[in-house]
Amino acid sequence: MPDALVVGAGIVGAACAYRLAEAGLKVVVLEKEATFAQGSTGKSAAGVRVQFSEPLNILLSYHSILEYQRIPEASYRPIGYLFLVPEALREAQEEALATQRALGVPVEKLSLKKAQSHVPFREEGLAYATFGPMDGVIDPHGVTAHYLREARRLGARVRFSEPLISARREKGVWRAKTPKGEVAASFLLLCTGAWTGEVGKRLGLEIPIRPVRRMVFATTPAPFPHAFPLTIDLATGFYLRSEGARVLMGRSNPDEPPGFSEGMDWRWLAPTLEAGLSRFPFLEGLALDRRASWWGYYEMTPDANPILGFVEEGLLVAAGFSGHGVQQAAMVGRLMAEEVVHGKARSLDITPFRLHRFREGRFLKEKGIV
């Protein structure tokens, strides 16, 4: 009988499986798709950053980026994140910057003139910018493949095309039902991303994680050389970055209803471009490539922060990252292994991200959600 059953073979589930196997546990991974990284992981914009306001988010990302730097398959590129800070958010961003610096992560405060050296923009309404030199992008597929390969090397079994139908706890053991039979394990870990709310219902649990669709728009190759960092206009939430000769861009739709809506919402292109052109006029000279654009899901919680750790006896959740799961997966894998092996995460205090905060009516106020 395996010690731990991990549900989900995205980047978070893969990292957890690897670290559990590394700790000497017998691990089985269940994945409903035919291969790995087919959910939010594979649709991610691939950014990694330390520029958050909540200390735990900062540290989860910081330690994860340090790990990605050591994984060749991650193809880590420190292109940086540039935050353009409007006057209205001057004080809030100053507080976030102070927290980041107190934790020892590298973030710089830039004048608008210096920020212009990274990407050209209109300065109206802005106070200053912040830049994270260790922020950047990775290859989520490469990282996920690395973790699953290492987990298998240590004895883990990965079973594709095998969704979790239901599970129940009997005599200290979780008995999970799949289309191929029953799998029993002492611990059950849900790393099911945007589907975690639905999976929770199969276990008779209310887990407040819902899918929300997000779009990434890609241009055709630009007629000029560029190497833009992932740049975010905090006044509107519009972001862009270079991807080879293309420019990727997007903006979260605050009116997008939760649910498994599918396909590109081309109606959201006009509001996205309107926000982008107001700050980055050079975008007007670029053409959109509809075939290169894509959509995926954010896995949203009520406060846009993840749920981590035990939620019931033998049952753990690592999901609800609300757009920053790729950024934090590496450290989350380590912490979930500590939860199982030691009964509680040791490297970082994950209390702020435990499920009971919602049951107690406590909501975190992360200011760095994009």
UniProtKB/TrEMBL annotation:
One of its GO terms (molecular function) is oxidoreductase activity. One of its GO terms (cellular component) is cytoplasm. This is FAD-dependent oxidoreductase. The keyword Oxidoreductase applies. SUPFAM superfamilies: FAD/NAD(P)-binding domain. Residues 3-338 form the FAD dependent oxidoreductase domain. Keywords: Oxidoreductase. The keyword Protein biosynthesis does not apply.
